[in-house]
Design a protein that fits this description.
Length: 95
């Protein structure tokens, strides 16, 4: 049951994070240009799987050497910094 909860929460978080990002825009553009839906889906799925495997492997490796609390704090600070940067750039550079 615990694994199902982890699977479901991971799915929801990644699904929401990926909606409307540059990956979706690239897939949209490639499918529109090529007209080959199946190859586009398979290529995008393979790329997302490969990048996810790298992220999970790196996270697993880093977790061996860095305490989980430090990882959570660092991740939170990086998300906040990214959000602040995007918000500031919206107001500073787009008038």
């Amino acid at each position: 049951m615990k694994s199902f909860k982890l699977f479901f929460s991971t799915f929801i978080i990644v699904f929401i994070a990926e909606l409307g990002d540059k990956t979706q825009i690239a897939s949209f553009s490639i499918a529109a240009e090529s007209g080959n839906v199946l190859s586009t889906v398979l290529g995008a799925a393979a790329a997302l799987t490969a990048s996810t495997l790298l992220a999970v492997a790196a996270g697993h490796l880093i977790a061996r050497y860095v305490p989980k609390k430090a990882l959570k704090i660092t991740s939170g600070l990086l998300f906040l910094a990214t959000g602040a940067f995007l918000l500031a750039s919206r107001f500073l550079f787009n008038g």
